[in-house]
UniProtKB/TrEMBL annotation:
Keywords in alphabetical order: Membrane, Transferase, Transmembrane, Transmembrane helix
Keyword Lipid metabolism: no
Protein localization: Membrane
SUPFAM superfamilies: Nucleotide-diphospho-sugar transferases
Record's signal peptide: none
Name of this chain's protein: Nucleotide-diphospho-sugar transferase
One GO term (biological process): mannosyl-inositol phosphorylceramide biosynthetic process
Length: 330
């Protein structure tokens, strides 16, 4: 019987290691839905910062380029924009006459990836869902050219010059994961290098389309890499490597939008989008919080049982299968 503690220990160590791995994975996944790292600015704060600085002190990290993407995966080869999207994009072109403007069609996008990032071409062409190519493309555009990427269902309320003084930024809807509908960067910013370099290791196909899109290239992926980037930053990063969240919260009472408007979206909706979108924004934080609580309670109860049995053995008792302690006969 003297080998029983050793056998128990041999079983307990891998069980605890597995338990720790599961908990760490759950917490790592849940982290993308809670408070995000990095500095957050409302659009009003960006405007106020710009207005309070003299022209001579303003540095524009981000080049004056607007990128938009139109991949017509329902009618390949047809590069004519829907009328409402064309009207929305014209608001950005008219508001920023001194910006370069690029509309990236399927053929133009494929040529860019083939020419500049051939190492990614097989992954780009192999994505199961077309929107994943749009996701990946916007990240490579930020890495290569810099500028401001804007989804076609987002318009502009005014010129975007005040946003150019930040080295890089993404948008934050104020709940759930970060957004990738509007992005901006200086060329070669290390966050976008990490984003693009991480796409291949993350390119899994999950059971549900929404999970595959969101976690292999979309907003969940973006947020996970965001957290990883900030975890690797030195205590005092260089100003040119700064990274900000521009708030675009649509909920009542949220900060006013200054630069952007919202139009019709939903171009990549699958059957599971609304269901898992609700889960991602609302239920996952609730569920993971309770799972963590149950894990802590389970660990505490297990530790108490182990301590009780150990104490009973020291006192000369053995615990029967029904939980009753009986003094051992010597």
């Amino acid at each position: 019987m003297r080998f029983r503690p050793l056998v128990s220990l041999l079983f307990a160590i891998p069980a605890l290691a597995l338990f720790g791995l599961i908990v760490s994975r759950i917490l790592g996944f849940a982290q993308i839905f809670f408070e995000h790292a990095g500095a957050a600015l409302t659009q009003e704060e960006v405007e106020a910062r710009y207005n309070s600085s003299a022209d001579s002190t303003r540095q524009e990290y981000i080049p004056r380029i607007i990128h938009q993407v139109f991949h017509n995966w329902r009618d390949h080869g047809n590069e004519t924009l829907p009328g409402d999207w064309d009207a929305v994009r014209q608001t950005c072109i008219r508001s920023n006459p001194d910006f370069e403007y690029h509309l990236w069609t399927e053929s133009k996008s494929l040529e860019f990836i083939t020419t500049e990032y051939e190492w990614f071409l097989s992954t780009y062409e192999g994505y199961k869902y077309p929107v994943q190519r749009v996701d990946a493309l916007r990240y490579f555009l930020m890495r290569h050219y810099g500028g401001i990427y804007i989804d076609l269902d987002n318009g502009c309320s005014r010129d975007l010059k005040p946003l150019l003084s930040l080295p890089s930024w993404v948008t934050d809807g104020g709940q759930g994961a970060l957004s990738n509908n509007i992005l901006a960067a200086r060329p070669g910013h290390p966050y976008w290098t990490l984003m693009t370099d991480s796409l291949i290791p993350w390119s899994y196909n999950y059971l549900f389309p929404y999970f595959t899109i969101m976690y292999a290239s979309g907003q969940w992926y973006e947020t996970a890499i965001w957290q990883k980037y900030h975890a690797q930053l030195p205590a005092e990063p260089e100003e040119k490597d700064g990274l900000y969240r521009i708030m675009m919260d649509m909920r009542p009472g949220a900060a006013r939008w200054v630069f952007f408007t919202q139009g019709r979206g939903g171009s990549w909706d699958n059957w599971d989008n609304h269901f898992f979108g609700f889960i991602g924004n609302m239920l996952i934080p609730w569920i993971t919080g309770h799972i963590f609580l149950l894990a802590v309670i389970g660990g505490a109860v297990g530790g108490l049982v182990w301590y009780r049995r150990k104490r009973a053995r020291r006192a000369g008792y053995k615990t029967l299968s029904n939980g009753v302690e009986e003094r051992e006969m010597v």
